[in-house]
TrEMBL record:
UniProt-listed GO biological process terms: cell division; cell wall organization; peptidoglycan biosynthetic process; regulation of cell shape
Domain Mur ligase C-terminal: 313-426
GO terms for cellular component: cytoplasm
Gene name linked to the record: murD
Organism: Fictibacillus phosphorivorans
Protein name: UDP-N-acetylmuramoylalanine--D-glutamate ligase
Function, in words: Cell wall formation. Catalyzes the addition of glutamate to the nucleotide precursor UDP-N-acetylmuramoyl-L-alanine (UMA).
Pfam families on file: Mur_ligase_C, Mur_ligase_M, MurD-like_N
Residue sites binding ATP per the record: 119-125
Catalytic reaction(s) noted: UDP-N-acetyl-alpha-D-muramoyl-L-alanine + D-glutamate + ATP = UDP-N-acetyl-alpha-D-muramoyl-L-alanyl-D-glutamate + ADP + phosphate + H(+)
Metabolic or biological pathway: Cell wall biogenesis; peptidoglycan biosynthesis
Domain of life: Bacteria
Domain Mur ligase central: start-end pairs: 117-290
E.C. number: 6.3.2.9
Length: 450
């Protein structure tokens, strides 16, 4: 761990507990900082608050009193989910008190090199791919950030023999000032979290902080097919590594003669990659570039790409039975996500869809149903989806009581070379506690068929 004397005797306010706040508080306390921790949850039953108090840390629960700002703070460490419109944070900004997230702390203390990955979509898939591709390399990959362990906690324990692979959100990056990854990845930029950032421009600026402090010794890997991302990357001082599913960029990642290439090196034939979808091809390109730059072997990369099933519940490959391939996309809780899933396949699809009725129609799903030969609906929206299927000209429309019953029914409707896809286009809460539970039911039902 790097020299932590910077934090000694600093007066720091941590706002928001959860995992990152709790880990950050313990860490900064161990560095000799003078801490106050503030959490809006009531003190009663707050286990994390109780543990911190036993360490001698002051904890203020139940509200965010502005008086916490009156003690000449050096800076605030904010939970990423707390918006800047929060009255306490808003007042801190007015008083010019620096506001960080624990990502800033992680970058300051880590002895390991860092691969930081951001984007509106695909972060988890790309981060997981990079972590897998770097196995058996010279350095030990440790996955952290939004997936895996809290970033600052991992950073404190890391050594020069490790490499941190971190999935980072705009919320986390917005609270950085000196954060400088050796390899940064910017996957894409879509309209999202505008209630938090206020505008697409501000959202993009927050994402672009991933490369703000990089220099010519670092790398920025970015999506050249995304105009917004490409524009934001013009000001980056790092070495540019573009990737594109459409064009060939010298020095980048591209497709040529049915194969994926990094710079002048063939990596793998596209036909060997098991993860479906053009959007996943972009994620794969980014992961390949980051992994090769960080020291991964071509052999390990090829092994991952020929076996990687996808992140669980996100277009996850579950298995094959008698020529039918099963995919679990239970995370698709809206029409946009189901459209993306359907676009990933050229084969005929048996679609399993349905769930919580939020009052919307499914007309926006119509253009994506061209390859759907049959649909099995379930849940509160079963009838609505059946009507949409009729409009799309789908002749085979069946209804099941739930996902468990939908799987064997879909199998009976299928033929060899078909895809059986759970992509509900709806939240799960009418029948299941979470989309994860719904996806697990799908997986279990597929295994029962086998």
């Amino acid at each position: 761990m790097k020299d932590t004397t910077f934090f000694k005797d600093k007066k720091i306010l941590i706002v928001g507990l959860a995992k990152s706040g709790f880990a950050g508080a313990k860490l900064l306390h161990s560095f000799g900082a003078h801490l106050t921790v503030n959490d809006k949850s009531p003190r009663e039953g707050n286990v994390e608050a109780e543990k911190l108090e036993k360490l001698g840390i002051e904890v203020v629960c139940g509200d965010h009193p502005l008086t916490l700002l009156d003690s000449q703070l050096d800076f605030i460490v904010k939970n990423p989910g707390i918006p800047y419109q929060n009255p306490l944070i808003d007042e801190a900004v007015k008083r010019n008190i620096p506001i960080y997230t624990e990502v800033e702390i992680a970058g300051m203390i880590s002895d390991a090199s860092i691969i930081a990955i951001t984007g509106s979509n695909g972060k988890t898939t790309t981060t997981t791919l990079v972590g897998d591709m770097l196995k058996n390399s010279d350095k030990t990959p440790i996955v952290a950030g939004n997936i895996g362990t809290v970033f600052s906690e991992v950073a404190a324990e890391s050594t020069e023999k490790d490499i941190l692979v971190a999935e980072l959100s705009s919320f986390q990056l917005m609270g950085t000032e000196r954060f400088k990854p050796q390899i940064a990845v910017f996957l894409n930029l879509f309209e999202a979290h505008l209630d938090y950032h206020g505008s697409l421009d501000e959202y993009g600026k927050a994402k672009a902080k991933i490369t703000e402090n990089q220099d010519c010794s670092d790398y920025i890997i970015y999506n050249a097919d995304d105009e917004r991302v490409s524009y934001l990357m013009k000001s980056s001082k790092a070495k540019h590594i573009p990737f594109s599913v459409k064009e060939k960029y010298e020095g980048g990642v591209y497709v040529e003669d049915g194969a994926l290439h990094f710079q002048d090196q063939k990596v793998i034939d596209l036909s060997e990659i098991v993860l479906p979808g053009k959007h996943n091809l972009s994620n794969i390109m980014a992961a390949v570039a980051a992994s090769l730059l960080a020291g991964a072997t071509l052999e390990q990369i090829r092994q991952v790409l020929t076996s990687f099933p996808g992140v669980k519940h996100r277009l996850q490959y579950v298995g094959e039975l008698n020529g039918r391939r099963f995919y679990n996309d239970s995370k698709a809780t809206n029409i946009l996500a189901t459209n993306a899933a359907l676009s990933a396949f050229e084969q005929p699809v048996i679609l399993l869809a349905g769930g919580l009725d939020r009052g919307n129609s499914f007309d926006d799903l119509l253009p994506s149903l061209k390859n759907v030969k049959a649909i099995v609906t379930f849940g509160q929206t079963a009838d609505k989806l059946a009507e949409t299927a009729k409009q799309a000209g789908i002749e085979t429309i069946k209804r099941a009581d739930n996902v468990e019953d939908a799987v064997p029914l879909a199998y009976r409707l299928s033929s060899e070379d078909d895809v059986i896809l759970l992509s509900p286009a709806c939240a799960s809460w009418d029948q299941y506690k979470t989309f994860e539970q719904r996806g697990d039911m799908f997986i279990n039902s597929v295994h029962k068929l086998k």
